[in-house]
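Hi C.,

You asked whether I'd gotten around to modeling the 378-residue construct. I have! Everything is below, sequence then structure, no commentary in between.
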Amino acid sequence: MRILHLISGGDTGGAKTHIISLVKGLSKLIDVKIICFIEDTFYEDAKKEGIDIEIFKQRNRSDMTVVNRLADLINDEEYDIVHCHGARANFIAMFLRKKIQIPMLTTVHSDYRLDFKDTLYKRIIFTALNKTALKRFNNFIAVSESLKNTLVERGFNSKEINVVYNGIDFESELEFTSREDFLAQYSIDFKEKNVVGILARLEEIKDHETFIKAADLVLKKRKDTIFLIGGEGKNKDKLENMTSSLGIDSNVYFLGFVKDSNSFMNSIDINVLTSISEGFPYVVLEGARMHKPMISTKVGGISKLVNNGSNGYLIDVGDYETLADKILYLLDNKELLKEMGTNIYEDAKKNFSYDSMAKTHLEIYNTILDKEDKRRLS
């Protein structure tokens, strides 16, 4: 079996981790290749992992000259399925499908209505284009059951949607720098301090305001705590002004884009996510792999891993008071904090490995090909 994955290539964070983890797992089982359309760190990181990846560079989003190149590659090298990830790949697939005779599949990683929430132009144009492109697919993977339900509510066929939760590499030895070396890059004095972190792009959907409000409450009781915010985005100035107005800017650090998520996770004591909406984010698995208990909003498929009171806590969206209470409780109970870290690691390793994710994808590919064979014979 030969599978071709299409992705923009400008992806960072969870999307990048997902496809690299998936293709690493699939490469043990079948022939798989990635084509991306932007030359960025995604390409370099995939190459470092030994993945077969090539750039078909677009001048801009409307540049469809890549379509003929893709069609020639697919037909010449006899690929069996094209698997798309994200709005750009989905849009290209609309035009590609007319030139090839093999099935196409797309993974829906998040709520497509919210993907471009922070930019008016993109929200109006790109959301509509992606919705139109998605409607042309007959095969889908959603990264959580709740995301599948969202798609079904919007008119997508439930029978065409498979659910596969994200998986991550628990086999390879992790590379990361020490807490001291990582925080020294940002001139952060962490000695005798607790460290609470959130790793998420600075956009409305991630709701960092809830994180900052909780930090304010925690610092009223425990001055020995610092808060790390990893990520970049349009809300940076707004969030920095918020911490300043609360008078907590000396304890809250904006790190910008963090390329080395392992070192970030190694440097914190508690992993936090305050999103309004999610699928099944990799930041949960990345923290679990580093034995960090999770406090997260109860959204998407996060409850599939975070077991309230066992390996972390789930809170309601926007509930900064409960978030602060849970942070304080864990900081006051270090043995429990350590126990929860062990528990989330064991739970993630058992249920969310990249090998398991790859095997499930292979089963879906086989089902799609069987269905295609029956269609051609009928």
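If it helps when you're writing up: The chain is about 45% helix and 15% strand.

Thanks,
B.
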